[in-house]
Amino acid sequence: MIGRFARRIHAEDEGLTLIELMLVVIIIAVLAGVIAVNLNGVVANAKLNSMKGTLSGMQTAVDTFAANKDGKYPTAAGTGPAAISAAAADNNGKTFVESYVHNLPSTVCADWGVTCSAGAPSWSVSANGKAYFTDGAATPNYWYLPTSVTAAGTTTAP
Hints:
This protein has four helices and four strands. By secondary structure, it is of the alpha+beta class.
């Protein structure tokens, strides 16, 4: 009795037709396409959030340094706008790099999804103490703001 039932199951087991198989492949391709499109937005958003976090950290370091240096910023002259000097020392002789930041963050534009001009990208401080990233053309491009990052072409600090 069991032998007849087993033979009957195998006799009806024909597998997938070509049409059914193609439908499965099409559904998988559509799902993969939807996921790939959504991942592009996630990557761009992650790069922007990375830039925001880095700018926020730099602003905190600049503010803390200025509090320990009679309101002067970690630049060669102590004023801005100027490039941040890693060797700038506060009133206690502590240098900006080492005491306030472990090292100046990378200025690799591709890490943040921004386009840099020819030249060397750098970190700077504005005349009113705002940390910013310049893309190498000596134009301030990205300022630290509490909730956002301003876009290219900004020439005055917020």
